[in-house]
Structure to design on (338 residues):
């Protein structure tokens, strides 16, 4: 089924078209959410919300746009909202819940390849460090960097998703890399790993 | 090129974003500076994590769960009107009022039970009759019996 056909059938409420859409774009959406949330379960939850929103608001979709651009935009917005809500929730969360969540995320990172636990542990530490550095970036830089790195999107595509000019995206990614470098150098000096 | 300048350009060098001339200068510096090479290797390994994480495995039950969630949303009863307001505003307010009432009652009860007064009252009402038997049973009554 072509993109246009999927959209047409979705407008008619076809379940088959919806299944096709999910099969085709599931990885794209989950991957984008994961890049911003760094947690598989959360990424899948938000990805489900993205598809539900798509199903419900398919009438708003402009025929001249690409489905992927639309999906990227919804995935980014939903993920950012999830992060904001989570931040607010943390204020009311008990300390035990926070420790449990941290343990869970560490466990998820460590339980990878058990053949080389030392390598795994180092990788998980690097992963945590990188996630913290990415999360500390300003929102626009974070989104541009994530789309570029996790989804290999070209600057032009990122510009379409973020509704910015290509030069703005270029500048955002340049600044994101500079900020990341600063954080990584600081950590290297302090011997975090 | 000095170390400080190299540190500023390292990420761009590793990502292949530098023009050829500058990349050559950074490479030449790295070839002779142990400290910068160590940092470059460290950063390369950290950024390499992105490649590992890039494509998380596709969950085969994703669609099934998604459908179940959509059906649940359709069949779930609507939330009580004003529930978020109740949860976010009224609930904490009610708990605060209860807490304040508890503290106030505690002070009131504590104020009434003055240590000296209550000890005296206890001695008078509870202990004296037992210690002073004459008061509860006069000698006349005793002799009469």
């Amino acid at each position: 089924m072509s993109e246009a056909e999927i959209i047409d059938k979705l407008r008619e409420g076809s379940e088959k078209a919806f299944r096709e859409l999910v099969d085709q774009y599931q990885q794209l959406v989950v991957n984008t959410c994961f890049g911003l949330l760094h947690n598989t379960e959360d990424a899948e939850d938000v990805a489900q919300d993205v598809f539900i929103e798509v199903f419900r608001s398919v009438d708003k979709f402009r025929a001249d746009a690409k489905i992927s651009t639309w999906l990227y935009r919804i995935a980014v917005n939903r993920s950012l909202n999830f992060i904001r809500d989570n931040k607010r929730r943390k204020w009311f969360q008990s300390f035990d819940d926070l420790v449990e969540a941290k343990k869970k995320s560490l466990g998820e990172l460590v339980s990878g390849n058990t053949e080389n636990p030392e390598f795994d542990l180092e990788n998980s530490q690097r992963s945590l460090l990188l996630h913290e550095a990415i999360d500390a970036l300003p929102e626009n830089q974070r989104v541009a960097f994530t789309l570029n790195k996790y989804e290999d999107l070209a600057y032009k595509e990122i510009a379409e998703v973020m509704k910015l000019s290509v030069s703005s995206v270029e500048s955002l990614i340049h600044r994101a890399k500079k900020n990341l470098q600063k954080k990584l150098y600081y950590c290297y000096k302090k011997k975090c790993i | 090129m000095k170390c400080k300048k190299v540190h500023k350009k390292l990420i761009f060098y590793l990502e292949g974003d530098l023009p050829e001339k500058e990349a050559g200068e950074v490479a030449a510096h790295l070839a002779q500076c142990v400290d910068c090479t160590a940092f470059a290797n460290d950063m390369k390994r950290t950024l390499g994590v992105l490649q590992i994480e890039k494509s998380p495995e596709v969950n085969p039950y994703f669609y099934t769960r998604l459908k179940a969630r959509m059906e649940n949303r359709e069949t779930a009863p609507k939330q009580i009107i004003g529930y978020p307001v109740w949860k976010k505003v009224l609930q904490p307010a009610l708990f605060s009022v209860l807490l304040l009432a508890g503290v106030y009652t505690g002070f009131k009860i504590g104020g009434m039970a003055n240590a000296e007064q209550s000890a005296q009252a206890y001695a008078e009402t509870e202990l004296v009759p037992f210690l002073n038997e004459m008061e509860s049973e006069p000698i006349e009554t005793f002799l009469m019996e």
